[in-house]
């Protein structure tokens, strides 16, 4: 089940009704949301419910054990090993087995066979694994108290809006809201919730899915003669926009659903393609993952406290592992490693005298944004294309192409560019509203305009979405 399927809206209506009926019973609200989350997760493959329950139970027990004070470091190691061990088994068995067997003469079983359907990675396992690790580490550090109620912790880890693709929530960002005295009994902010839902649905169902229709044929044939001479740059740049609209759309919907049930969650995106450097990009893109990697990997490795060489190693290793977290493919590791190289290059550049001289220039700020976007997009070649050789071909087609094939096929689809232009104009309108019009327009008119915008986005998402079964969110595979 995904947020864009018709069955989800029926599911949401039932859950919201049962939640409302239990408005005066905190335990009942916890029970309704927890059962709903497990039903949501097990809708496609019900045996996965037992895997999710095992994670919740183990993390709760480890948290209690750590707080009891009996060899807490060893207990924490057991808990982290449990989370990462199961994650590694499900996610990295294909790549490790395929790599090993490919080196053995006479072996024909390969990772390609696994990708054909013989091995299925549980949806969202990376996200609830990291949420559980954050909880156990914070208990060990004393940043949060161990949760006494196993059902509250299970809801923290498995609540269906963030279960499949985040945001990755810290204990302090959600667990305190689940306590009996603070547990919401009504929708926190109906208008912001509807705006988030409308914006998220529009991003996913209209922008991301229509871009996918235009560019998927190119990526499917990127290493074949049918795309010989085709310029890859517009396709990869469109993919950069697709994955942003897809993932940020999911996050908008997740945060909007959380607000429906009274919970407030942090932002996960902050206009990442307006970043002027790769370092700034990672402060704006998938913010909860970036902060997780910083606080639970980069800083424990030593951060920038042990000299330049060790800092460079820590930064590169963090990005390498962050890339590998996305999936069981060496391409993801390479994608993360490339970002590590870009971050190191930016650190070296930003400390130079020339960078300081260019920093005040407006033209340099604009050029920096363009160069950052192009660099990030080029790296996406290895993220989007699963086969390594095909990914290399895709990256090479940025620089070697036929002049008469610069804009062909889906790259010249006028409907895609028209929708992107409309979204750009709408974003400028939102920027103008936030920066200048707010406070100059009567409040009733402003609220009416906001409600109208939210409803219009939902209606447009339904009307303009491509026909057929809606494709899953990209980050569901992680």
What would you call the quaternary organization?
single chain
Count the beta strands: 0
- Mean pLDDT across all residues, rounded? 89
- Measured as a percent range, the helix fraction is 55-70%
Structural classification: mainly alpha
Q: Based on Cα principal axes, name the global outline.
A: globular
The helix count comes to: 21
Order of helices and strands: HHHHHHHHHHHHHHHHHHHHH
Put the structure in a nutshell.
Helices cover 68% and strands 0% of the residues. It has helices at 6-21, 26-42, 48-68, 72-102, 111-118, 125-141, 150-158, 160-163, 171-174, 190-220, 233-260, 278-284, 287-298, 308-325, 330-350, 353-358, 362-379, 381-384, 388-396, 414-437, 443-464.
Could you please describe the fold and organization of this structure?
With 478 residues, this protein is an all-alpha fold. The chain has a domain of 181 residues. The protein has 21 helices and no strands. It is globular.
Question: How do the helices and strands line up, and which of them pair or pack?
Answer:
Blueprint (H helix, E strand, L loop, with lengths): L5 H16 L4 H17 L5 H21 L3 H31 L8 H8 L6 H17 L8 H9 L1 H4 L7 H4 L15 H31 L12 H28 L17 H7 L2 H12 L9 H18 L4 H21 L2 H6 L3 H18 L1 H4 L3 H9 L17 H24 L5 H22 L14
